[in-house]
Structures are given as structure tokens and as C-alpha cells.
Design goal:
Blueprint lengths: L5 H16 L4 E4 L4 H14 L3 E7 L7 H10 L7 E5 L1 H8 L5 H23 L3 E3 L4 H8 L16 H5 L2 E3 L7 H10 L4 H4 L19 H18 L6 E8 L7 H14 L6 E5 L4 E5 L2 E12 L11 H14 L3 E10 L6 E9 L7 E2 L4 H14 L3 E7 L12
Parallel strand pairs: 1-2, 1-4, 2-3, 4-5, 9-10, 11-13
Antiparallel strand pairs: 6-11, 7-9, 8-9, 10-13, 11-12
């Protein structure tokens, strides 16, 4: 196979964008991620001042992120014309009461494009540039999950629905190829090497219903997890938040408890399993599977958390989900408080080449414990912190 050449790609796409847009104006929504930033820089090369770059502050970006990203992109060497659209309340209102992951993704997409449509009309832009990549299309067309930036490929006409034509300069590329283009374009490392962040932002890491206090708690936990995990260089690493509401025990829970007790070689009285009421997205045979989340707590005789090797926990996860395919997530307790609080936090770190499959990162227990302790100190409404030991498949990378 011929090696990917970023210089040739940039030359071809610059010409293609010029030809597609002509002398018209175009709009691009930039998140600060490598895909949208690369598309913005490519389009700016092709169009100059005819490109308007907006950051849509949906309420689901990380703390202070919209202003921080706008500042970086507006500085040399990029000098992009930036505008921040503050529409947090609109998104929170639209997403209110939704619990199902796919419903939330579709509502996010609808609201996102309505905002862009109104902006395009106000700014007289007939074209929208966006950073759809090949992995987005594979997952959406395969029915795994709706990526908010996949439209025409699944029969949605952006021209008819929203009034603009879509240009997708990096749609033929996977993430690592986009990074090569970004490096060639001299995009700052803070953006070109930034870990992926989902288009719908933190909304897909708030499992179940989105509430303001739940979202704010997740933002705190996210900042802590990213700061603590960065030193180990996973491909992606983050926190998710789940309502601390569990289902009544059933025979599946009992079976998981028996399997985990034998596998970890701990007495049954020292092992506890809970299944949460909310579910998480998984993938099987390239198709979406919406399944149960189980959390395992194992303790030593002196009541400390049993710090089993991560590779062993991954093996246990495979055994549990193979025997109980209605589960898509297995979490393992790192630390917990003595009193029950409304929420729990799940930490995730993965290694991957293409984001279509992923392994669980072997984060040291010292880092896991330190991260969990800091989260519990800073988030008083969280009672447990877990490590997600599920590979992709059967889980997706994001909870939703």
C-alpha cells in the first residue's frame, strides 16, 4: 500500500475546496479537536476571509474550553477568524429528560445543525465545512452509534434540512492520517496531538439523564482524570458519570458474583456486584448493542480494595460478558466513600490505532488510587470511583 503523503493531500484538498466553494462564504464549527481544526486550516488556506470559524458552546465542552480554543486558533501561525456562540441553555433545554443514549445523540445532532443553520443564514454562508472522518461513517452506517457529523452518508440532505451544502475535506482519512496532515500544516501540538473528544462532548459521558449538577460534577472529575492520566500517554482517557441507582439483584448478578469470586480468589463475603439502572452502548459484529453496566468491588481481609492486575480484570471482563452478553460494561472499584451519594464516576483509558477496536490501558494502581481520591475529595456528591476494564468490542470507547 502506498504511504500516505500529507503534502499531496493538502494540495489536492485546497484545490477541491476552492473549486467547490468558488467565491462564496463558508462556515465551519471548530471544537479544538484535530479533525475540525485541520479542516479549518485547510479551508482558510483555500478561502481566506470567506471562511467563518465558530465554536458552539453547547454546555458540554470542558471547563473554560470554548474561550481557550478560540484564543489558540486566533493566534499566529493559524490566525483563524473565530467566534464563540453561547447556546448552553438551548442545548440543556433540548436534552432535558432524555435517558436513552441514541435519543440523546440524535437530539444533539438536530440542535447542533439548527444552530449552524441559523448562523449560516445570518452570515450569508451557503457552505458548511466539517471534520467528518472515516471512523465516524463506519460507526454510524453500521448502526453502532449516531455520530453527529454524519448526514449525507445515511440519507440526510443538509441542503434540504438546513439550507447549506456540506464539504468534508478529511472524510477519507482515519485519525492518525489527520494528525499527519495537522503536523504538516504546523497546527500547534496542543491541538494536533490532543486526545479525541466526542462531537456531542460531555453529553455522551453523562450516562442517562443530563442534569446541571451532574454535568458540573463530571467537568470537575474530567479535569482531574485528564491531569492524572496524561503521564501514561493512553490514546484516550476520561471520566464518565452514572446515577448511583442499582437494579434489584437477579440470577445474572449472582452468576457474575460467582465467576468473579472464583477468578479473583477472594471469599464470597468480600466481593460485591451491583448493576446500574442506566445502560451503556456496546458493539457486537459491527452493530450497536445497548446493555447493562456491572460494577465489581473486591476487598482484602482487612477491608481494603483488592488491587488485582488490570490485565487480569480485562480477562475477567471477557469471561463475564461472553457468558452474559446482555452486559456491555464491567467496572471495577478503585475507591469509595462510606456514605451513599447520588453519583458514581467511571474512569476510562484505552490504547488504539484506529479507534474501531481498543484495549484497556494498564494504568498503575498508584495513579488510579490517587485519581479516585482526588475526585472524591473534590466531588462530595460522588460515592464511588471505578475503572472501566472493558475492551472495544464489546464496549464502545464512549459510554454512550
Amino acid at each position: 500500500m502506498k504511504e500516505f503523503d500529507p503534502e499531496s493531500f493538502v494540495e489536492q484538498q485546497t484545490k477541491a475546496i476552492k473549486k467547490a466553494v468558488g467565491g462564496e462564504q463558508a462556515l465551519i464549527a471548530v471544537s479544538g479537536g484535530v479533525d475540525s481544526t485541520t479542516c479549518a486550516v485547510l479551508s482558510h488556506r483555500a478561502m481566506g476571509e470567506n471562511l467563518l470559524c465558530v465554536i458552539i458552546d453547547t454546555a458540554f465542552m470542558r471547563e473554560g474550553e470554548p474561550e481557550r480554543v478560540a484564543h489558540i486558533l486566533s493566534l499566529p501561525p493559524l490566525n483563524l477568524p473565530m467566534k464563540v456562540l453561547k447556546v448552553q441553555e438551548r442545548f440543556l433545554r433540548e436534552m432535558k429528560g432524555l435517558r436513552d443514549a441514541e435519543e440523546k445523540r440524535k437530539k444533539f445532532r438536530e440542535t447542533f445543525y439548527r444552530v449552524l443553520s441559523e448562523t449560516a443564514e445570518n452570515e450569508d454562508c451557503r457552505f458548511l465545512v466539517q471534520g467528518t472522518i472515516q471512523a465516524d461513517i463506519v460507526e454510524t452506517k453500521g448502526g453502532v452509534k449516531t455520530q453527529h457529523n454524519v448526514l449525507a452518508q445515511i440519507g440526510i440532505s443538509p441542503k434540504e434540512l438546513y439550507g447549506f451544502q456540506v464539504i468534508e475535506p478529511v472524510v477519507s482519512l482515519y485519525k492518525e492520517e489527520v494528525r499527519k496532515v495537522a503536523r504538516y500544516l504546523k497546527i500547534p501540538e496542543a491541538l494536533s496531538e490532543r486526545q479525541p473528544f466526542p462531537g456531542p462532548g460531555l453529553s455522551v459521558r453523562v450516562v442517562g439523564e443530563i442534569r446541571k449538577d451532574k454535568l458540573e460534577t463530571l467537568k470537575k472529575a474530567t479535569a482531574i482524570a485528564e491531569q492524572k492520566f496524561a503521564r501514561h500517554s493512553p490514546s484516550q482517557y476520561f471520566a464518565a458519570i452514572i446515577d448511583n441507582v442499582e437494579k434489584p439483584p437477579d440470577h445474572f448478578l449472582v452468576h457474575i458474583q460467582e465467576v468473579a469470586t472464583r477468578f479473583l480468589r477472594v471469599p464470597k463475603r468480600h466481593l460485591h456486584v451491583k448493576v446500574f439502572e442506566d445502560k451503556a452502548t456496546g458493539v457486537e459484529g459491527g452493530k450497536r448493542r445497548y446493555g447493562e453496566i456491572a460494577a465489581i468491588t473486591a476487598r482484602t481481609p482487612d477491608r481494603q480494595v483488592h488491587q488485582a492486575p488490570i490485565k487480569d480484570l480485562v480477562t475477567l471482563q471477557i469471561k463475564i460478558i461472553t457468558e452474559n452478553p446482555q452486559f456491555t460494561r464491567i467496572l471495577y472499584t478503585i475507591k469509595e466513600t462510606s456514605e451513599k451519594q447520588p453519583y458514581v464516576i467511571s474512569l476510562r483509558a484505552i490504547q488504539t490505532r484506529d479507534f474501531l477496536t481498543a484495549e484497556v490501558s494498564q494504568i498503575p494502581w498508584t495513579t488510579l488510587s490517587e485519581t479516585a481520591e482526588t475526585i472524591l475529595e473534590n466531588c462530595p456528591n460522588v460515592s464511588s470511583v471505578y475503572y472501566d476494564v472493558t475492551t472495544k468490542p464489546p464496549a464502545t470507547i464512549e459510554m454512550e
